[in-house]
Amino acid sequence: MSRYGQAGRIEMKQLRKRVLVTGGAGFLGSHLCERLLKEGNDVLCVDNFFTGTKDNIAHLMGSPYFELMRHDVTFPLYVEVDEIYNLACPASPIHYQHDPVQTTKTSVHGAINMLGLAKRVGAKIFQASTSEVYGDPAVHPQPESYRGNVNPIGPRACYDEGKRCAETLFFDYHRQHKLNIRVARIFNTYGPRMHPNDGRVVSNFIVQALRGEPITIYGDGSQTRSFCYVDDLVEGFIRLMAAPDDVTGPINLGNPGEFTIRQLAEAVIRLTGARSTLVFEPLPQDDPMQRKPDITLARTTLGWEPTIALEAGLRRTIAYFSDLLGLPLPETVSA
Ligand code: NAD
Ligand code: UDP
Asked: What gap in Å lies between CA 31 and CA 27, rounded to an integer?
């Protein structure tokens, strides 16, 4: 805060941007808060701790420019900020399917509340949308122009349709109220601070390998995903927010490297030196068979593309989980 308090707001605004991050105690949000603080912003982290944890942001609490507020975005929020990153929403299938009604409320009511806030204070607002808006895609790789193949009544719909509706709201606020919006469609992202029990494939495989347990492959493992390391993604967020005002998105952010789930399992086993076997379990309903971003738009408008290869990112993530679980760091990673 400026020594001049509220009265010095105009000067303060020039010195430090006040940035709100909803879902800031989660996996991506905590990395974003860290980056925004490093860049000299005044960061307000809002979270209801459904899937996020104070441990993810404990290291930021000492900074006078970091503030934490326990709040559920399905309720209105009154704060004064210059920019909003709206990330609040459980992201892993087991978490978002735990209370599907609350998941839709978080995406839809959360978007309405944050857009209302942005409108009141004239803030620029970013939405963490998702590759799930493409559903089980019939077009490959997925460009932003593809309208998707989503089952509106399936178990993933609370998340997919909630995020699609949030995109609709962002563009209606943009057209109707001239709001300055940024919509990023995020593809599978991994890295330190993923929740060890969130059931996502990277965290599951690493935790299973470190514990010497069997690796659970759903289906035959031929389905594909493209995995982006968290630091690359956050760089994309920052560039999108800083882009000229006509760059609204939606814009794909993800790593175009495409791997089968079986290849991922084999890479994790190799990198951890684990003796884990592969076990095959039923493929969940509506599980997309393939996914890979077309990032031409991000390359051309933001000059952005991922720089961290899967193996390098996995090594860092394995090191994080071995520390978190108190298990020895595999020699293959420390070497
Ligand atoms: P996460 O679960 O780690 O983080 C979500 C955060 O939002 C958590 O801290 C959680 O407690 C908080 N939250 C949930 N509901 C809330 C509510 N009603 N009010 C306030 N806070 C609430 O997940 P993440 O991977 O960090 O994802 C962050 C955002 O990015 C989400 O919106 C997600 O949909 C989107 N996204 C993530 C990925 C990915 O691969 N990680 C991919 C696509 C989109
Ligand atoms: N998956 C798997 N084993 C696991 C967890 C996930 O085979 O232990 C598969 C899952 O069925 C999906 C892919 O890995 O095909 C990615 O799953 P995740 O939940 O990480 O993300 P999403 O399906 O949302 O892309």
From this structure: 7
Q: Is 4 among the residues known to form the active site?
A: no
Burial class (CB in 10 A: 0-12, 13-18, 19+), 11: exposed
Q: Which of 96, 124, 107, 128 is CA-nearest to residue 241?
A: 124
Ligand with smallest separation from the Cα of 286: 2
Alpha-carbon distance of 20 to 107, in angstroms, equals: 17
Which of 159, 173, 190, 229 is flagged as catalytic? 159
Token code pair at residue 55: 């441990």
Ligand 2, pocket residues at CB < 6 Å: 92-93, 188, 199-201, 204, 216-218, 223, 225, 261, 283-284, 287
Q: Is 32 exposed, middle or buried (0-12, 13-18, 19+ CB in 10 A)?
A: buried
> Are residues 127 and 167 in contact, defined by beta-carbon separation less than 8 angstroms?
yes
DSSP bridge pairs for 184? 128, 251
pTM score, whole prediction: 0.95
Instruction: Give pLDDT tens digits along the chain (335 positions).
Output: 445 556 555 554 557 999 999 999 999 999 999 999 999 999 999 999 999 999 999 999 999 999 999 999 999 999 999 999 999 999 999 999 999 999 999 999 999 999 999 999 999 999 999 999 999 999 999 999 999 999 999 999 999 999 999 999 999 999 999 999 999 999 999 999 999 999 999 999 999 999 999 999 999 999 999 999 999 999 999 999 999 999 999 999 999 999 999 999 999 999 999 999 999 999 999 999 999 999 999 999 999 999 999 999 999 999 999 999 998 888 777 66
Q: Closest residue (by CA) to atom 16 of ligand 2?
A: 201
